[in-house]
Design brief:
This protein is of the alpha/beta class. The protein has a single domain (about 10-325), classed as 3-Layer(aba) Sandwich (D-Maltodextrin-Binding Protein, domain 2). Helix content is about 45%, strand content about 20%. It has a six-stranded mixed beta sheet, sandwiched between helices. A three-stranded parallel beta sheet has the order 2-1-3. α3 runs antiparallel to α11 (about 250-285).
């Protein structure tokens, strides 16, 4: 048993960045924990680019180490670890902040945002900017919103109308809004860690799930599902977060440079998300995955089925925030978007 534990520890350590190879004794070390791959997921790519830029531009002052694929903490444990000083940065999905604030429930409301561009317009407007400070009193400081993409449904049987989901068990993130959304389909929500979703689908612990194209592709979820229905019913967003104490501990000039680099990476990578998602969608098809599209009439049925969820959480997210999000969705645009 000891030999097995030692072998596992050695394997884990060999997969993680070696601090001695990247950081110097004079560096302020920032451990950046993520649950996704650093190579084929928008969040993972952004985190690694951020680390590379900081390590090049702030050498001798700050060193960022990215720990992908839940090798340091998963999103269910990382925030408490951050408050304890064991990790300095992370970018959990917004539903992971439920214990700290309910305002981010806005982003889980079904069919609120027509596309990622509308999400970006809301987040960069005053209402979205204010949300970053919603947890300051609880010790967490939001720094930047990172896009992942629009969410799609998949299951072990075809999903074209809401009633097709009746009785199925869907894996969800821990989110009161998403749980209500699934129950509105007369299905059963099951909260399961992201790293366990593939096995849960493969073994029949759950029948379906909802996620972005990049997550579905990177985790090979398409391989253990009958098909994916392109619903664009929700958005998966992340918030780059740190602790208030850590941010205050940085020298002012160091803090300003670090945040400027993070903002630059955010603008660059958020603009690239649509292309990343399109590439993942195409890769799913190339790998033999099946994608179903909805007719306007079928889509309207899904919207109607989930509409009651809005009233249930209107007070939590704030009517003004809902109105601001809707206004962002009505912005003038030259493209068709990814939803509707």
């Amino acid at each position: 048993m000891k030999a097995l534990a030692a072998a596992l520890a050695l394997t884990l350590m060999s997969a993680l960045p070696a601090l001695a190879e990247v950081c110097t004794p004079s560096d302020i070390v920032i451990k950046f924990a993520t649950v996704v791959s650093a190579t084929d997921n928008p969040k993972g790519i952004a985190a690694q680019i951020f680390a590379d830029r900081v390590n090049a531009e702030m050498a001798g002052k700050v060193c960022v180490i990215v720990y992908p694929d839940s090798t340091l903490y998963d999103d269910d444990t990382v925030l408490q670890a951050m408050l304890q000083g064991d990790v300095q940065m992370a970018a959990p999905s917004l539903s992971k902040f439920e214990a700290f604030t309910k305002v981010f429930r806005l982003f889980d409301l079904p069919f609120l945002f027509p596309d990622v561009a509308a999400v970006d317009a809301f987040e960069t407007a005053p209402a979205g900017e204010r949300m970053k400070s919603a947890m300051t009193a609880r010790g967490l400081e939001g720094l930047e919103f990172w896009h992942s993409g629009m969410k799609q449904f998949s299951a072990n049987r075809p999903l074209l109308r809401p009633e097709d989901a009746t009785g199925l068990k869907f894996r969800i993130q821990p989110s009161a809004v998403i749980a209500s959304e699934i129950r509105a389909l007369r299905a059963q929500p099951q909260s399961i860690a992201f790293s366990d979703v593939y096995d849960a689908l493969r073994t029949g612990v759950v029948d379906g799930q909802e996620n972005t194209w990049s997550n579905i592709y990177a985790q090979k979820l398409y391989a253990v599902q009958d098909g994916i229905t392109e619903t664009n019913h929700g958005v998966l967003e992340y918030l780059v977060v740190t602790s208030v104490d850590f941010l205050k501990s940085l020298p002012p000039d160091t803090r300003a440079q670090l945040l400027a680099i993070l903002h630059g990476v955010t603008v660059e990578r958020n603009a690239a998300v649509t292309a990343v998602e399109a590439k993942s969608r195409a890769a799913i098809l190339a790998a033999g995955g099946h994608i179903r599209t909805l007719t306007p009439e079928e889509r309207a049925q899904w919207v109607a089925a989930m509409q009651p969820v809005w009233a249930e959480f209107r007070a939590d997210v704030g009517p003004d925030n809902i109105e601001a999000a809707q206004a962002a969705g009505r912005r003038p645009t030259n493209d068709a978007g990814t939803g509707g």
